[in-house]
Amino acid sequence: MRTRITLAAAVLAISVAVTAAAVAAAPDDRRHGAASHEVWTVDQSDTRPDGGGTLYIYADRELQEDGASAEPERIDLGAQARDLCLERTGTAPVRPHMIVFNGGPDSRDGNSHAALAFVASGHVLFLDTETREPVECIDAGSQAHAVWPTPDQRHLLVANQNGKLFQRIATDYENERFTLEDDATLELANGTTPSGALRQDPALRPDNAPICPRTDDSGRISFVTLRGGGMFVVDHTTTPMRIIAEYDREAVRPNGCGGIEARGKMYINSGAGALETNPAEHEVYGFDVDDFSTTRPAAPNMPAPRLIYSRNAEGDVDSHGVLLTKKERYLWVNDRIANDITVVDTRRDKVVETFSLEGDVSPDPAPDLMDIAPDGKTVYVALRGPSPGSGGHAAVGATPGLGVIDVRRGGRSGELSYVARMSNMREGRELADPHAVRVRVIGPVAVDRDRERDERQDERERERDERQDARERERDERQDARDRERDEREREHGERGRGD
Fold first, then answer.
1. pLDDT in tens, 159-175
2. What's residue 451's pLDDT?
3. Which domain holds residue 430?
4. Torsion angle (degrees, nearest 10) of CA 94, 178, 73, 396
C-alpha cells in the first residue's frame, strides 16, 4: 500500500525496531523434486513481558489440503527457549527474527537443527528439529539480526547489527556443541579496509551495521550487506575473518537483505530502511563469484557489480526477500511496499514479469521472507501485520500470516492462493508479526520423477528465449539502421548548409 510512507509517523510510534532485513533464500541445493516437508515460520511479537515469540510449524499436507484453516504446531519461545537462554546467558531472548537450518534439503541429517536469531537481544538459539527442543543458547551481543550456516556445517555466521560486528559460531551438530569464536570476529566500524580506507566512513560507508550475511554455494566467501550502504565480501574461513572486497554506498545501495547464488552469480539487493534515512529503495545487483580472490584483495568497488534492474524511479518501493524457482530458472524478488514480486530470468539477467500479491486474499500483504517447496510448485511467504516489530513503515501489512503462492508458468509468475492467518491480540490490538520462513525437508527428494518433463519444459523455454532474443536483436538492428540513416541525412544537410 503506497500510503505507508505518508502514515509513517503513526507506524513508527507502533514499531519497536528501526530496521529490518531478511535472508530469504531457497535451500542451498536446489534440485527440487517431490518430497514431504514442513514450513517453519516465526511470529516475532512478544508472548510475555520480557520477550518470547511464537514458532509455527506447518505440515505440508495440511497446507495442501486446507491451508487457510491449517492447524500448525505452536511453540512458545517464551517458555523452554527462554528458560534455556536465562540459564546459559542470564538474559531473556527478545524478538525472534531469522531462522535457518544447518544443511540442504536432500538429507535429513542436513536439517537436523535450526538456528534462530533474536534481533532485539542478540541471542542465537539452536533447536533439535525432530524433538523441537532447544539445545543451546548463545548471547552474541547487542543484536543478532541474521545468521547463515556455512555449507560444510562447521560454522554459523552472525550479523550483529547494532554491535557492528561480523561473528562466527563453531557448530558441531552431531554432539550439539556450539561456541562463539571471539578471535574470529570482524569489526565493521573500526579499522581500515585492504585499500587503506576507513571501514566506516561518513562518505563511503556511513553506517556499517551488518544486515544479512550470505555465503557463496561453495562456502568460500561471504557477502555482508550494510545498513548505510556498501558491502564487504569476507573470507570467513580465516581467524580473524578478513575483508577481501569493499564497496561503497554508491556501488551498493543501503539495507540489502536478500542474497542468493544462481549460475555462478551472487544476486544482492538493496531495500528501504528507516524513514528518515532511506525510506524507499529497490535495486538488484549481480556479482560473478569466481571473480573474487581470497589471496589478492580487490580494489574498491571491484569486481564491479552489474545492476540487474532498479525500481527506484517508481517511488515507494522496498526490495526485500528473494528466492530461486525450480532449477534456478527465475529469481523472485518481493517488494513489501509495492506488494508484488519481480521475476528475473537468470539466464539473461532480464526482468520478465512483475506480478501483484494484492487482491481478495489480502488487500495489503506486505510480503517479507520467502522459501520454496521441494517440488518448486509452491512458495511460502511471511506476511506482515499492522504493528510491525521491525521494518517500520515498509513492513506494515493487513493480514499477518503465512501466505501460500501457487507458482505459475514454470516460475515465471505466481498467484497468492490463501493466507494461514496468525493472531496475537492484546488490548484490542493485533500484534502478530510473522517474519522468518524456512522449508524443512523431512522425506527423500525424488530428483528423477519429473526430470523428463522438466527437460522438455526447459527446452521449450530455451527455444522461446532464443526467439525473443532474435526478435530483440532484429528490432535493435532496425533501430540502428534508422539511426544511421538519420545521422547521414543530418550530415548531408549540414554539408549543404555550409556550401550555401
1. 999 999 999 999 999 99
2. 55
3. 5-447
4. 40
